[in-house]
Design a protein that fits this description.
Number of domains: 2
Number of helices: 3
Shape: globular
Strand order of the largest sheet: 1-2-3-4
Radius of gyration: 17 Å
Distance between the termini: 33 Å
Oligomer: single chain
Length: 223
């Protein structure tokens, strides 16, 4: 299901099985990729690259371990986008440049913390982005290892469709042509307490990430 002749510039240790671009410009490329690491099971991830001179540099990677984990994240993202979540938090280890308007913890242990937040300000600029974060605790300080940002409803419709289609194809062999955007927008569902059970298996370029959140995300990325 590769939608372009050019193979996404993933790490050389990964074999790309299929991909679907969300958007691409001369400088930015966001794409859903299904890949395999050696003999491990295939995984799906959303990548964001930036072109520096002639080279693509990875900025973010969001690994989706299972379709159930994606459904949890999808519902929380939708609830934050339409302001439907009744109980939220706003204290998270995000950059001081951002102001968190609302958010919820998906999974947290002594070493790992996954949350989805709504950011209403970047410096002096107003925004309404919803961001999935994964942090790792090192010597008492939380470092970002994962980030996936949704800019607005319009971009969310495109991204949700691409990701859901890839995951459905992965599990059933057929693309998912259903449209969940209406139910996302209109449900008003409170998903504060919908964290999925964890998995102990990890693949791709990070060999081990921690039992408490492996069902959701994996990736190393410096702040």
């Amino acid at each position: 299901m590769n939608d372009s002749i050019e193979t996404p510039p993933v790490d050389d240790s990964l074999t790309v099985l299929s991909s679907k671009s969300i958007y691409r410009t001369d400088e930015w490329w966001k794409v859903v990729v299904r890949y395999q690491y050696e003999d491990s099971a295939a995984e799906t991830a959303v990548y964001l690259w930036h072109r520096d001179d002639s080279e693509w540099t990875r900025k973010n990677k969001y690994v989706i371990k299972t379709k159930d984990a994606w459904e949890t994240d999808r519902r929380v993202i939708a609830s934050l986008l339409n302001g439907a979540m009744s109980e939220t938090e706003n204290e998270f280890p995000v950059s001081d440049y951002y102001h968190v308007d609302a958010g919820t913890t998906i999974s947290k242990s002594d070493d790992w913390w996954k949350a989805i937040v709504r950011i209403d300000q970047k410096g002096s600029y107003e925004t309404e982005e919803v961001v999935v974060y994964l942090w790792q605790n090192e010597d008492g300080q939380w470092f970002r290892r994962q980030k996936y940002a949704v800019k607005n409803w319009d971009s969310w419709d495109d991204e949700r469709t691409a990701i859901s289609s890839m995951l459905t194809t992965e599990t059933s062999g057929q693309p998912d042509d259903s449209d969940e955007s209406v139910s996302d927008r209109e449900s008003g569902e409170d998903t504060t307490d919908t964290a999925e059970p964890v998995d102990t298996d990890i693949k791709s370029d990070l060999e081990q990430i921690g039992d408490e959140i492996e069902d959701h995300l994996s990736e190393t990325f410096e702040t």
